[in-house]
Records
---
Amino acid sequence: MKRSLSALLLSLAAMTVFAQKEKYLGVAIFNTQSDLPFGKFSGMFSEIFHPGAEVTWGTNFRIKKKHDWFWDARVAYFFHRFVQHGIPVYANIGYRYKFNKRFAADLALGAGYMHSIPATGKLKLNENGDYENNKGIGRMQANACFGMGAGYLLNPQNVKPVKLFIVYQQRLQMPFVKSYVPILPYNSFMIGFSKSIAGKK
């Protein structure tokens, strides 16, 4: 898994050496629900809130009039009540179609590391027959994701424009609990903004 992730990150970095480049930073907040992929949408707004936040650094490495190809690195945190605190660290590669100067839609695939910290107490029986804390610092996990989004540029004429965006993301966390839930799927709805920090070259 580590070799595959390293190869992905190296490939993404190599692609940015060529063609036009435009770097950006993004921030988003989101709600996440555990369910089968594409299994939940309305529940994002009517059921228990499992909040999260994410920071993104990315590059549009191929820019055309109607199309962009991009990759980004992301760090997030979310709280799933009674289950875990999740800290995903991952990379995305994606495609963006621009309907006009302001509106665009995109698709992205990603993979990376996720640190899982139990959200409730975890105890074990010691040699004296007493229970003691066994929560530790959490578990190392892998995560893979797929996202569909839409964006709106507030000031497309600006050299460093600001974009508002929404994303519906599917995430797979693995191996969650090997014995009975080897893969834990999540559905997330994100809203945020990004800003260009370096123009096209």
---
Amino acid sequence: MAQSIAPLARAAPLAYDARAVTDDRTRPQVEIQIDSIAAGGEGVGRDDDGRVTFVSHAAPGDRVRADVVREHRRYARAELTEVTQPSAVRVEPPCPLFANATCGGCQLQHLDAGAQAEAKAAIVAGALRRHVAQGMELRPIQTPVSPYRWRRRARFHWFRPRGAKGAIIGFFAPRTHRVTDVERCPQIEDSLEQALAVLRTDLAPALGRRGEILAVSGHRGDVHLSIHGNADAGVVANLVGRGPITGVRLGKQRIGEQGVELEPGALGQADDFAQASRDGNVALVRAVTGAASPVSGSRVLELYAGTGNFTRALASAGAEVVAVERARPPELIPPGVDWRRLPAERALADLVGTGHAFDLAVLDPPRTGAREVVPALLELAPARILYVSCDPATLARDLDALAEGGYEPTWARPMDLMPQTAHVEIVAEARRLGAELSPRG
């Protein structure tokens, strides 16, 4: 039975940023079979000419009609208008903003949980195919996170139309800077949704033209905010104590608590990086420390240490840790940890120059990867490297460089820590060829 999705392709976001551009030209239409999911979450098929076509909101196994919105010689992008033959893995999305294509926070609500995991595992396998062909073990994907209400961290955007009584607070529409008014979100924890309600009623009238609000929820349900953009300082100060909000930062002004306890003993602020999912972070730390174990007495170098997410676990297991992070150190640094507040490449140069040696290096770089530190890391030559990545493509690139420098990529484990989105986390190991691993490694 054909399923009409015509409103989905043309639905207008609930609020417009003045920078948005509208194109009313007649669009060509294609009918194609969807074969797979691309890294960004779009369905992938081929048109009648064999050209690869990416279709938003399409599921593997769907037969669809779609409007072509962008054409290139080798590929095209299209917006779904009708599912003529739905796939067995297609489900009804619970969020109307996703169904109407007005919110870009999710990409995969239309796929069942098994199909999402399968798609993410396939994306990782495709990125690492060269190393898998050379003997790297690709382990089964882990799915430790509930499908919804898993997000403890959020980035809300606001836009205030001229003459409006208040700003519109929400998320960007897909592939635009148009702000969609979001009243509820099935991704975020209850405490964040309660904080969002306070922002919409109390803060919206006091906001300037545009900006963003970072929010993080602690394990007790308290919320810390960081506001980037023009806002009435008096109104901001009065947010503390409203609902779950215990602390707010506005520029250099700090009101209330300076952060929240993300997990017992781990303090964080809204501006700090933290894994978006609480259960996902527990699983990720367990995966890294399990792969590193046993580390008691080992010398461990941790690059891109963030707020000490892995540092605490490695130090608790008895490792001697040198942790490197260019941002401010966490409030609580475990005893015995050598914390170096430097860019990773500078810290590595110092370590190489002073003759330090390590049994293990743990990397958790940003999405852009660790290209800039690989040469010095090769010179430092730890026996093993554990690489935590949120981007399969940059992980593959950096594993190529490590392999060229004498390391063997041995295994990789994909982890679905952000259901309903196209994001996938990966833990991978590489071992230095010829290295004599101690019983600890």
---
Amino acid sequence: MTIHVDFVAGGSGGTLNTRRVNRHRLLEVVRRAGPISRADLAKVTRLSPPTVSALVEDLVQEVGLLHEVGIGTSKGGRPPIMLQFNAEFGYLVGVDVGSRTLRVALTDLQGKVLARHQEPTDSSSGSATLDQIYTAVDEVFRRTKRDRSKLYAVGIGAPGMTDVRTGRVINAVNLPGWVDIPLRELAEARLQAPVRVDNDANMAALGERWFGCAREVEDFVFIALGAGVGAGVVVGGRVHRGHHWYAGEISHMNLDYREWEADFGERGYLESHVGAAAIPEWQHVKRLVEGVAAPGGDRAGAVALIIDAARGGDARAAAVIEELAVYLGTAVANIVAVLDPALIVFGGGLSHAGDLLLHPLRRVVSRIVPNLPRLEISSLGDDAQLMGAVNSAMEVAEGRLATWLDAAAFPTRAVGRVGAR
């Protein structure tokens, strides 16, 4: 966790503003360099030893953001007591609400995963899915015996268009009943902690930038190839969501002008061709997946079956992946022509084809546009959305901590309530 502050030079000034800034400085140095002694803290921060001692006393005894973790090596005098950031001062929860699978992770404030939970998504109704989320959050706390009241922030990735400002899911096509759902409001009331909601593809992009193959990449696109098709667009290091929160909804990209009047419904043209829910409907694919992708069956399992068959040398299955690569490659080329990203990352079930998909993709994209970016499979796999949700919760937690440290006096130590700290 990084708490962003503007540093002031040296000194041990006693004004309220200086004390606030010094709290931030000291906490961030311990977080980054700990375990560290008080003497070394004074050297690194250029604060006087009495100021460091007073601030440490506050942050250890009064607050609990720092804790003493043992004795360091003596440099000629009394061995120093070492200080470390208390990453379990509060807890973060990331939630990935997939159309097929619900994933939940409990982490400390540094993003270290303490517990995971995964189960099939109950999509029988919108309320059933919400209840399942709340139960899963309670489960990871119960399993780890952590204090549920110390839940500090939550990030939730939803599979559809999302108004991030209000935390409303506008429409999640692959989750029945998820239309205009005030998810943030409902989740905050139930979980009693601040919640950030975003589109699952945006969350996946955040996950890749935080901990995956897009680290240090300022301009890239994450393309999610699951039951539906979507994209998370990162420009200048920030997720670009668009005026109507529609940026990245590539499912509606039309690749054939002759079909401009065709009604592809909520899926849209591209998703109707390369979405896992649509692929088994292809006439020449039905024979390959007979019995697996029957109505109401496991469409994602059917895609996995095609990938396995192609790896095993089945020419028909390999031809299907080549055909998918043409559709997808044409869409990618259009994205590249508009955004010129450095990298495009693919995640979701179809991405499990790996090089079987990437090789023809590179051929198609490079044939259409001259500025071929790096094309890679997600290094986080099915965890991309979940880790992005954790990262989103961490950003909320940073804001809460920064506001709290700016207070004239530290409020109650209770961390769970929305609005507290």
